[in-house]
## 1
Amino acid sequence: MHERPPIAAALVVGLVALAALAGPVPAASAADQDQTSAGAEAIRDLGTAPEQARALAYAGVPTGVRVEATQSGLVVTANPVCTGLVWGCKSIIHSSGRVFDLVDTTSGYTVPWPSDWREGESRDAGAVYSAARDWVSWWWNSNRPAALGSVTRPYAARSLTATVVSKDDAARTARVTGTATPKASIRIGGSEVTTADQSGNWSSTLQGLSVGANSRTFQQYVDGSYKDQKTVSVTIVDPVQPDQITGNRGSATLERGKTSTVYSTYTAKRAFTTPTGRLEVAAPAGTRFASGQDSQRGEYRSGSSWYSFGGNTLVNGSRSSDGRTYTFDLGQRNWDVAKDQQFRFGLRVETPVDVSPTTGSMTGHLSGSFTGGTFDTTATTDTTVADQPLTARVAEVDAARRTARVEGTAPGVTTGIAITWERNGQATTQRVEPRDGKWTVDVDGLRAGSNTVQVEAFAGQQSLARTTVDVQVDAPTFDASVTFADDVTERATVSGHGVPGARVVLRDGSTEVGSTTVGQDGTWTVRPAAPGRGGVWSLTATQTASGQPPQSIGVDVDYGAAVRITSPGDGFVVSPVFPSVRISGVAAPGAVVRLAERGVPGSDLGSVTAGADGRWAVSTPALPVRDQVIEATATGRGANTTTATVSLSGS
């Protein structure tokens, strides 16, 4: 809003007349006249009614609109377009929710960046409008903007930095990192090598450097324009060549109870004279180094023959307390080894008579350096004990009898084999003599599942080797099933499979209802007495075998429905008018139902077999006229008997 002092009425009249020469002026409303006379001045919008009626100057769409993003803000350049009775022509800028009224944009007007517009962010910059002034006020038209378009706020300029953080002399490369203006192009000789990220960080790897000093100049370009540069220097040195000695692979044979010399052999990839370093040798499994080998002359190969070095090549030897390792320093003397020449060190290895592993390896880890080269390598010598090992394997298993045959081989000096296992839960040992290096034994009393058999070979009283073998015995199937005979008076049969000789007990809860012993054919049978009730009788079958944990399974014996009388109901009146009485009900299908008067010896009111649906009915002769209780007894499958009663009233 802009304010100006009141204008004299006479001047107003004159100006109105002058404006009439330019064209007809729309009549002002009473409200407009009141506001004008009050002297209030505003930048009025020609795009809204009714204010346009008072306009003598008109604002059009600005021309020549141009926007430039600078560090300080948006520079908006535009030529406002004004027509009519014009006393002034300016621009209005709407940008990011802000309004810049009546500004001069002909030479560029800077709109500062709002605080929420981040560097590198692109957004719609808004619009610029023309504003025309007549003798009344300033006028603009919200319907006639010139869009400023999308603009990206530039990153704040930063100076270029560059630092060499690492180098690889062998690869002749170097890694350089630094900072710059975010998104700046980092170049060498005008060619881009990388760009800075949004935080201004960058990195680049220099390739193809030369041995000696190397200078490289990094340049920073922002929006395609050169800004500054930074020079780094990298010195590449010719690296020492690694792995100039390689360990060879060889083989050796060891003898039980004797000492053998085993060699670690190496090959030089370049000639050398005086090395520095160390050698650590590890003995084959089950063996140890003889003591007193703290210095070694070593040997070198010339042609097909081996010759001793002129002096000690291994010195300051240190044997571990268990004899498993020996560590030496390399003798600092002239070895005079040629390129591709082999050299070796021999250590005495003691092999016990009772050694278990028959194959292994001696390793010699050689590390150090000489002029122009380094080495870190391991020689491996595979070793074999000249004897067969102690072995054990399961030849066959009889799960029903819980026995197995175990066999194997033994070292040639073996005089006896001791086999230990658990027989029916008790530790048992049996000794056998090998024949032609082989042995066999039968073990019994095994338990279902895993059985560990320990085997130990002896030469006289001295133990030579030990091993174990696992004997897996599959537990015989323990199961149960129920069958019923066609004759309903026969008991139900519960039968199944189990461990021969095991005891099988049937229980109803904690009450034993039958037991038996599993036969040698692995089957068992129990015929329990009927429970005297209908429905499913849930039993538990438990098998107990010697040396085995008990096994239990559930057995359901389904005797079907209990007998039930459905007609006539209690209180049925017996009348002499009826020659007979019909009594009916339901029971287990196939059950034999017999009717009798309770408490009357020898009473027999008839019998019937229940149908497939369990229904039954009996018609009895006319009954005496007195109160009585009729009892129905049903004998179903498995000799299971149930009863039901009905009371009849006489009349």
## 2
Amino acid sequence: MEFSNHAVNANRNASMKQAAGRQYPYSYNQSSSYMKFEALIKEQSNFYSVLMDHVVAGVFVIYDNTFIYVNSYFAQLLGYGVDEIVGQQVDRFIEEEDWLLPQSFDNILDSEITKRQIFRWNGKHKNSSIVYFEGKSTSIKHDGVIYFLSTVQDVTIKYEKERELIRNAKMYQRMLMTIPEPIYITVDYAIIFANRHGLDLLGKRHISGLSEQSFLEYFDIKDREDVIHDFQNALLLEEATPFRQQQMKINDRIIEVEHSSVKIENYIGRTAILTVLRDLTERRQDEERLVRSEKLSVIGQLAAGVAHEIRNPLTALKGFTQLLRNKYAEHSYYFDIMGTEIDRINLIVNEFMTLAKPHYNSFQFNDIVHIVQSVLSILETQAALYGVELDFQAQENLPNLYCNENQLKQVFINVIKNAIEAMQDGGRVEITIRYEPAEQILHVKIQDHGMGMPEDVQKRIGEPFLTTKEKGTGLGLMVSSRIIEEHKGTMLITSRSGEGTLIDIQLPLQMEYMNNN
């Protein structure tokens, strides 16, 4: 291996010139031996040169950031000939500034210690493509000059596969983060990863907020054995465990979930468990809405027949009661009671008729603020009798709502009247209207600060004849729910005993125009 045209040749030539200027007496045999030795040296040099050119690795020597030797294999990797690289600066063949060898090789190695350094760099091919190299470098010292000998391999395919794996890993990570189900990865029950919905469910903003918290802590003590059993099965099996329904306690809130777990081999060097959770809260609410809707439908069909049959004889009873009151004036007290009860029956029949077939034939665009204000003007007197202040606030520039004005008025009268009557000791009822552009929904919220409703009553809200009032029919909220449902909206009720009740009426802005009369 020759370091041509550079420091090594210069030093060797100088030594040869000095040797040529000297006179040495020698015999023929000595001359013959010298020639044989010189031939042997040349032969060995040729042998090593051929050997280096046939090594299945790129070999090069650097001095002063310049290639002074490259084998043919290295030159071929870059698409050049050997003569095109020797004597050229190293930087010319580097695509990016990621040369991991030190920029200056001075004082790295001394004459007694030899070190090896691993490096990577992006080679610039003659056709402008990139060749990814990986190799080792060491120093060699000759005539007091330090050179750097390096061997490299073309790892382009390996590097591209690594990049592809990294891209896939990032893609899968993004998928995990955005999957609309809470996902957790645990090691020995400690949470080491949670996706976006998983963090939201636990009320956390970042995985660091969990601090490798135990997943078991979110389950009731009596349910933890089942979770441990599922995790152990996941470690033994090669498939996901069946979904199990349980309750979790998160921030003093009990939610019903179902979860399934599966083993992950070699997750950051460890065996982990991936758990998928499903929050059943919304599903339960949907099921309750469906049951409630079916109840309303059945009651509506029943009411259509019953109310009609009751109304005719009721009219006759009321008329004859009036006649009898005039004839038997001395017994007017009894007739007054009969008239009051007949009016009560008539009220129930009217509500049944509304429940059976609400009149939605007059849908048009209306100002929701105007509707609520007209209701408040009707209820102001009743509120004053109870010592209740009606506090109304509405967002500015609210869009018009496609609705039936009279039916919505009936809903607001029912709900606000209930709020007033819930505050026997007076206080304030807050009515607010705001618009959510992203959801295209108008929110009408009615908040009272009364005694609230017991939990068992809250679960039965919307059932017929369920009431906490002494003279209530129990149909007001049911009729209101039916009206809001026909407007494609929802009515959410939140109540805490001793703190009051909040009713959030959500009305979609862009509902389908109704064709039925």
## 3
Amino acid sequence: MTDTFEQSLSHSYLNGANANFIEALYEKYLADPDAVEPRWRDYFRDLEALDPQSGRDIPHSPIREAFEEIGRSSRRGRAQSASDGMDAMAAQKQAAVLRLINAYRVRGHQHADTDPLHLRERPQVPDLDPAFHGLTDADLDTAFNTGSLAAPDRLTLREIIDLVQRVYAGKIGSEYMHITDTAQKRWIQERLEKPLARPQLSSDEKKALLNRLTAAEGIEKYLNSKYVGQKRFSLEGGEATIPILDELVQRGGRDGVEEMVLGMAHRGRLNVLINIMGKSPGELFAEFEGEHAPEHASAGDVKYHMGYSSDIDTPGGPLHLALAFNPSHLEIVNPVVEGSARARMHRHNDDDGHSVLPVLIHGDAAMAGQGVVMETLQLSQARGFYTGGTVHLVINNQIGFTTSNPLDTRSTFYCTEVAKMVQAPIFHVNGDDPEAVLFVTQLAMDYRREFHSDVVIDLICYRRHGHNEADEPSATQPMMYQKIKARPSVRKLYADQLTEEGVIDRDGARAMEREYRDELDAAHVVAPGALEEQDNEFTVDWSPYFDATWDEPVDTTMPVDRIRSLQEKLQWLPEGFELNPRVASVMESRRKMAAGALAMDWGFAEIMAYAGLLEEGHSVRLTGQDSGRGTFFHRNSVLHNAADGSTHTPLKMIPEDRDNFVVIDSLLSEEAVLGFEYGYATADPETMVIWEAQFGDFSNGAQVLIDQFIASGETKWGRLCGLTLYLPHGYEGQGPEHSSARIERFLQLCAEQNIQVCVPSTPAQFFHMIRRQMLRHWRKPLVVMTPKSLLRHKLSTSVLDDLSGGSFKVVIDDTEGVRPSSVQRVVLCSGKVYYDLLEERRRQERSDVALIRIEQLYPFPEAQLSALLKRRYKTVKSVVWCQEEPKNQGAWYQVYHHLTQCITRDQKLTYAGRDPLASPAVGYAKVHYEQQRRLVADALGKIHG
């Protein structure tokens, strides 16, 4: 670079006059270095940071800020004249300072003192060293512009370094520079840098903080002494969790949150129940002594899986707290909490999460290792699943199971890296600094309120005992537990700090411990602000649903005039709305079906069932990967304008004053989406909540939800749920992965009338089944084996009179008018195979075989089937169960014991179907069709002369 060029710089942009020009030129350089003159290219290259890991945007930021700050200085009238301007070296130093500030914002967290045990060696971060940027000790007392730093306009380098180290490399490590929204980044910067990342607490606030730590430690000591050796999954080492949750509740209530839904695994759960939720210590003690069972549950669950709900007094009024039940599958509760929160938002008419707040408490190894965490984060901003932002708290014990090596639990430095995918800010905080913890909690809550986005608090602490209280952690983690055993508790450390500050004396600190223990001895509720149960307009009364029965009589019919009126509303289109020709054909067919001029198909019956429920005041929520249109182009509940791509959802017009129909084409997730819908259904008994698999076997990806929540939630926890699952099922030669919805797995889970498993075979049956699910008071999950080819099968149709009359039939007798006296064989079946049997029987012109459909496989309709077999067909000797699935799959082995109760002594029960197979179905079309032909032939048997 020539002297002439240096002189031109010192007399141009350095006085702020040409800042915009320089900025534009630099932008041009970033896009293409060869597009600017060589002397400018050399100059900009000299200013850039040399750290290859930082990416080009990192050096650009401080340079841009330097130009902006010089421009601001000029406008404030403090700009130097051209002749007095800084020389090029001074400009380089200024840019270096801004790069250093930026480096601390980006990477200061790597040097932060966030680990109370100091287990990991502090990594080498070259760009946190002033020398890396060309700054020396000689520059320490030189004043520089501070750029966008929330500080005075000019500080010495020494002061700047001191400030950024305290803010970004103290007890809090902040990660937020990955956020692309400038307003969000600026907001965080100001909140971190202005108060120097440290709350200014009064003496009373410090005492209150100590009091919460005393409670967190006190319950653990009490349980350890009273119930020696019993599992409780202690919070010891992470006691700062309790002040965090207390602040979330109180600050949330102050800011308008009326309901808070919490999800957490077992670590610290008992502590939270007692010290936050307000559960009676006496009730907990009874659980330890095996004398307490949850209401409405028959089998119960271990105490550290149980949920709870309560009301807490806050500065903004009562706040309802709901802690979700959760099995030992740790993070699986995450989507359940989000779904419950969304249902509550619907009740509050709350679109942005102002009134309802979800809070998820993670373990460090679980957050990093379990895929449902990622899936749930992916829901956070998705239409139909948005809950206004979740506060995530990681109780980071720095270890997974006791025997785990922390280096084996993840590939990333932090367990929270996954949260960056949704650009959530992450605040790592030392769990042994309660005041830093409190500040981070306030920051997180304020960020969520301001931006309605997820935010993460990573509470870095430790686990004083092993995985459970019977574990011996030092056998496999000797070095970690040497440090833990030598370390005083956070409560002790903070009490000593306050004693030194003169806030409290040692007698006062000991008195806190005694008072808390006395309250436990008296079995008093110890959670601050705990209230008696509060009823308000948003409270759901579940009592009508507890004593209902599955066979409760209910009228599911709809008069023909009403059907036609609703269909007319559904035909309305906005002005200028142009339908795709194929969709237009579907709509025209539905118009004819309503007029009685065309046989009714499944799509019409389904849409009409929803329309009736909506008109009657219920809500309908349907999600799945292709639910708007329907995987098989059968539903078309969302219409797309062929001209401009806009959409119209006819069902949203019924009724016109309430938006009670939601249909969402969900993200490519089964586990998180099904968990979300389960959580929604457990919080709202008056919404028809439906999850639809694209193909039935895709529910495999959500098996944990099915096993641990849907099938067993009522038995373990007394938790009712009316969730409906649509699982397309049927053997049509599409191979192993698109044939079976694994009906055998659902039937294996059936007991105590916990779920319903139905296989409707006509549109009218589907219609009545849907309406029955909502119009009864019986709130149990409904698993439906929905059709594929039957959606357009010429024989699988209904007429309007089937909707205006009748009901859902759990068993359907032969409808071809066979005479019982002529029948030699009765074939029992479910689903599509009925039509294969029917067509073959017609082809053979058989009258000696009766076909009976079992439309509800559980609760099994023994009474109805027995009446047919023991009365109407009592002379028949041969009863056959026919199924498409291999013998070791399908319903055969799960309904066999029911079938034997339904036949007479003289009747012989046999099987007709595919042979046992390890795979759900063959992958070769010719083999499939030959198997299908053979099983139909076996079921019908030989023609009797």
